[in-house]
TrEMBL record:
Pfam families: Glyoxalase (PF00903)
UniProt organism field: Streptacidiphilus pinicola
PROSITE patterns for the chain: VOC (PS51819)
Organism classification: Bacteria, Bacillati, Actinomycetota, Actinomycetes, Kitasatosporales
Chain coiled-coil ranges: none
Name of the protein: VOC family protein
SUPFAM superfamilies named in the record: Glyoxalase/Bleomycin resistance protein/Dihydroxybiphenyl dioxygenase (SSF54593)
Residue ranges constituting the VOC domain according to the UniProt record: 2-120
Highest taxon, organism lineage: Bacteria
InterPro entries for this protein: Glyas_Bleomycin-R_OHBP_Dase, Glyas_Fos-R_dOase_dom, VOC_core
Amino acid sequence: MRLNHTAVHASDRYLSAEFLAVLLGLEVGKPFGPFLPVDLGNGVTLDYCEKRDEPIQPQHYAFLVPEDAFDAVIARLDAVGVTYFADSGHTDPGRVNHMFGGRGAYFDDPDGHNMEIITRPYARP
C-alpha cells in the first residue's frame, strides 16, 4: 500500500501549486476537475483545490529531496525571498538543520502550510 494523492487546500490553487513546483523543481499538471496536481515523481500527487469560503487550516508536508538537489531548493527560496528555517517552529531563520545525518529546512507556502525539505528520512524507533 502507498499514498497516491492528497488534496491541499489553497486560496488560489494556481499560485500555490506553481509556488511549490518552482521551488522543488517540479511541474504543475493539467487541471483535473477542481484539482491542480503537482506530481512529486514517485507516484504521488499533491492535488491543489481552492477553498475560499473559510480560512485554510495549515498542514505540514515534508519532502525527501536528493542531497544534490537540496542546495538548489535553498537557492530558489533565497531567489524568491522566502525565508526558510532550521526548525519547525520557525525560530531559526536562514539556517538549515542537520538531523539524522542529513539536512533539512522549513518554509511556509502562500497559505501558511508548513513545508519541509529533508535529505534523510527521520529515524523511527
